[in-house]
């Protein structure tokens, strides 16, 4: 199967190579003109040199020698030389090439395993090697791209797995804290648990957590007010409140659905505030709902754009439900003691 896959890849690479190196066809008139001009130049050179040689020999030998005789002797000599070289190369190139004529054939003792025939053979070999080289280069590039994609996939998978493991550890700690504080009947049970929940929640985001902040709003007297937070300044905690539909938290309260905004625009009315705020690049809001009753809103802010993704939303949803549980517990406790709304 792997061999078949390799063959398919090589075939694809070969096709890609042919497509990539498919150059425009060279014009025929240029080829013809090139060789015609070369032929004329060779004739001119031979004509000139043969005349000079003929004059020198005529004067030396005191015998009339013309250009045609010089050209004939040189041509025949070169022709015999090339025939001799080609025949010798033919014998040396293969032991199957016998010595003789159509009548007599003798074994070839001149075969040379290390001998390769002249320029045409080398040119063919070069073209073959060049083609193989380009095919292997394409395959190598594909392998590199594939390994890079695989590495990126493994990196993302590792990040997700790390978040899941951290989430599991966070849940264990929260359950232990819940059991302990409830058993001790801690008077600050709700505040302590909300603080633990938000502190753990901010650690399970896939991207950098160092620029994140988190605010938990509770509906108090028809307004959203911060009851717990992480990395939020004291002035905002004390003064910031929203009515339904006001600000981003009020917008989440009004819509009743989780929303991520990864590109915050300055003119967006949801993010305008009379209080000075730190720059926010992206934000996530989740309503805390029980049977269509919204008890509050959980907001996470990032100083950079694209700070959140859908995986974060799914993970944070668990912590929002724990916050809902604590707020609901607090509301039930207040109602029982006659301190809350009836």
Automatic annotation (TrEMBL):
The keyword Flavoprotein does not apply. The keyword Transmembrane applies. The chain crosses the membrane at residues 28-53. Pfam families: GAF_2. Signal peptide: none annotated. Keywords: Membrane, Transmembrane, Transmembrane helix. This is GAF domain-containing protein. Gene3D superfamilies: 3.30.450.40. It comes from Heyndrickxia oleronia. Residues 192-318 form the GAF domain.
């Amino acid at each position: 199967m792997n061999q078949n896959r390799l063959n398919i890849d090589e075939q694809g690479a070969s096709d890609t190579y042919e497509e990539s190196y498919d150059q425009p066809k060279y014009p025929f008139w240029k080829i013809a003109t090139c060789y015609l001009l070369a032929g004329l130049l060779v004739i001119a050179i031979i004509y000139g040199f043969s005349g000079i040689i003929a004059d020198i020999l005529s004067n030396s030998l005191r015998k009339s020698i013309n250009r045609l005789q010089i050209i004939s002797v040189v041509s025949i000599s070169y022709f015999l030389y090339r025939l001799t070289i080609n025949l010798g190369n033919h014998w040396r190139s293969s032991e199957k090439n016998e010595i003789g004529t159509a009548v007599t054939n003798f074994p070839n003792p001149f075969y040379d395993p290390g001998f390769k025939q002249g320029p045409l053979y080398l040119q063919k070999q070069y073209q073959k090697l060049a083609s193989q080289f380009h095919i292997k280069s394409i395959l190598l590039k594909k392998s590199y791209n594939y390994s890079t994609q695989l590495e990126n996939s493994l990196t993302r998978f590792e990040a997700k797995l790390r978040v899941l493991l951290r989430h599991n550890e966070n849940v264990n700690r929260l359950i232990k804290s819940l059991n302990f504080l409830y058993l001790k009947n801690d008077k600050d049970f709700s505040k302590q648990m909300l603080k633990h929940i938000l502190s753990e929640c901010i650690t399970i985001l896939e991207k950098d957590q160092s620029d994140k902040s988190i605010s938990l709003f509770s509906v108090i007297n028809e307004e959203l007010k911060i009851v717990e937070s992480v990395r939020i300044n004291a002035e905002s905690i004390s003064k910031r409140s929203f009515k339904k539909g006001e600000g981003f938290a009020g917008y989440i309260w009004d819509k009743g659905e989780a929303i991520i905004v990864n590109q915050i625009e300055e003119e967006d009315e949801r993010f305008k505030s009379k209080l000075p705020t730190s720059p926010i690049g992206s934000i996530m809001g989740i309503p805390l709902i029980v049977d269509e009753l919204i008890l509050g809103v959980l907001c996470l802010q990032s100083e950079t754009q694209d700070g959140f993704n859908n995986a974060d939303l799914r993970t944070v949803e668990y912590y929002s439900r724990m916050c809902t549980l604590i707020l609901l517990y607090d509301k039930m406790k207040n109602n029982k003691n006659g301190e809350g709304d009836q």
